[in-house]
Write a structure and sequence with these properties.
By secondary structure, this protein is mostly helical. It folds into two domains: about 15-100; about 100-195. It has seven helices and no strands. Helix 6 (about 135-160) runs antiparallel to helix 7. It starts with a helix and ends with a helix.
């Protein structure tokens, strides 16, 4: 009977010691630092879906820590696995970041080139536009529009220089659209002049 009692007490003490596993503080700090470092390098600018994955993983770790904090017998095995996964994910994203940054830059440069081509097309049409009595004011207004569009390229270049490639692409696409609209107006004015 005494032996059974000692075995039971031993099991209770063992369960208590196992249940009081220590929080993996160092792993938490290291994994969180790795994730935050990648995010600070601009991950959200070049790969917003990756930043969301990291933030979701951080949230899952925090949720698991809360679950363990509420238990009498804590086990941080799942937390440690989540932390290892987060560290691996952060390292992979950090390694892939330069390529994603370069791809974003190339997309911005391509958008600027397309916008410049659209502006050049509008300028060529403008040079061919009729210069009759009724269209002179319209042509001058369209020249002003083209000049305003061309002025936007300095701002776009500034965005590229600041590595804000998404904004540069958006602005370049807007310039291309405006240049297309001007070209359409010029074409309509030319057709109107032919009919007269």
């Amino acid at each position: 009977m005494k032996r059974v009692r000692l075995v039971i007490i031993g099991l209770v003490v063992l369960a208590f010691l196992v249940g009081c596993a220590s929080k993996p503080t160092k792993e938490i700090e290291d994994a969180t630092a790795a994730a935050k470092a990648v995010i600070a390098e601009g991950l959200g600018k070049y790969a917003p879906e990756d930043e969301k994955k990291l933030n979701d993983a951080l949230a899952a770790i925090n949720e698991e820590l809360k679950v363990q904090d509420g238990k009498t017998f804590k086990s941080y095995d799942k937390t440690k696995q989540l932390l290892a996964d987060l560290s691996k994910m952060a390292a992979e994203m950090k390694a892939a970041l330069p390529a994603k940054k370069e791809a974003a830059k190339q997309a911005a440069v391509a958008a600027v080139e397309a916008a410049k081509a659209a502006v050049e097309d509008a300028k060529k049409l403008l040079a061919k536009a009729p210069k009759g009595k009724g269209t002179a004011a319209d042509i001058e207004a369209l020249k002003g529009d083209v000049k305003g569009i061309e002025d936007a390229f300095a701002e776009i270049q500034g965005l590229i220089d600041k590595e804000d490639y998404a904004a540069a692409v958006s602005k370049a696409n807007a310039v291309k659209e405006k240049a297309g609209a001007v070209a359409t107006q010029i074409t309509q004015a030319m057709e109107k002049a032919k009919k007269k």
